[in-house]
Amino acid sequence: MESTLEKARKDPESMKGKILAVARRVFGEYGFHGTTMRMLAKEVGIDISTLHYHWGEKKDLYEAVIIDINNDLREKLMEVEEIIHGRPLKDRVAIGIDMMMDYLFEHPEISNMVMFRYFAKTRHDVLMDFRVPEFTIEIVRSMGLKEDKKNRPFSMASILTVMNSMHSFISGEESFRPMLKLKKKDYMELVKKTVMYIFTAAFTQDEEAGKESN
After folding, report:
1. Can you tell me the distance from the alpha carbon of 187 to that of 101, in angstroms, rounded to the nearest whole number?
2. For the chain: N or C, fewer Cβ within 10 A?
3. Any idea what DSSP says for residue 146?
4. What's the burial of 126, exposed, middle or buried (CB within 10 Å: 0-12/13-18/19+)?
């Protein structure tokens, strides 16, 4: 039997699909505690009883949003991995950052929800969570970084540093962009250039040093 989320993903134009899309945006903007079912119903243009009929309680809908985002992230990472597989490390880093930043800029609710989830002072009892450790290990493998038991924590921390930098720039766009006095397109290009410049050099320094020594 299909779950409510599976039905919504299969038919984005259905009422379940429309509610899910709105919930991603509103939860991303206001967080779990800042969002009410009345807000969501109003945004969709339905009454609250219809919202409850399709999705149950707020916790149920929030958990579905997290699962939906996790599924989308996995699909995107698989797409990135196919493209970067077998390429030199410098290219893998640059292409991976470029593709993931484009994706996250198109879906800012992902970065917003990650930031809400891990840096907000208020916690809640929602059981589902972003699969950050699992995703991080997958990225480490995709990038071809050292993943033996001794080096894995450092490699994972390195990837988390990159991802948190991306999320910070995207989630903080409304604050950062006016500081830089840039239009959205220029801001996006500058952020990508900055993240690539810093982390391409960081990830490939050992490789470059090896070339110089030879």
Report:
1. 12
2. N
3. -
4. middle
> Position of tokens 């996995």?
74
Q: What is the pLDDT of residues 8-40, one digit of tens each?
A: 999 999 999 999 999 999 999 998 889 999 999
Q: Are 192 and 97 in contact (CB under 8 A)?
A: yes
Coil, helix or strand at residue 182: coil
Who's near 47: CB < 8 A, 6+ residues apart? 41
Domain with 209, as residue range(s), is 4-213
Token pair belonging to 184: 């959205």
Rounded CA separation 63/124 (Å): 12
The number of domains in the chain is: 1
pLDDT digits (tens, 9 = 90+) for 124-178: 555 455 555 556 666 666 666 655 566 667 777 877 888 888 899 999 999 999 9
pTM: 0.81
Report whether 53 contacts 98 (CB < 8 A).
Answer: no
Write the CATH number for 121. Answer: 1.10.357.10
Residue 153, CB-side half-sphere exposure with 13 Å CA sphere: 1
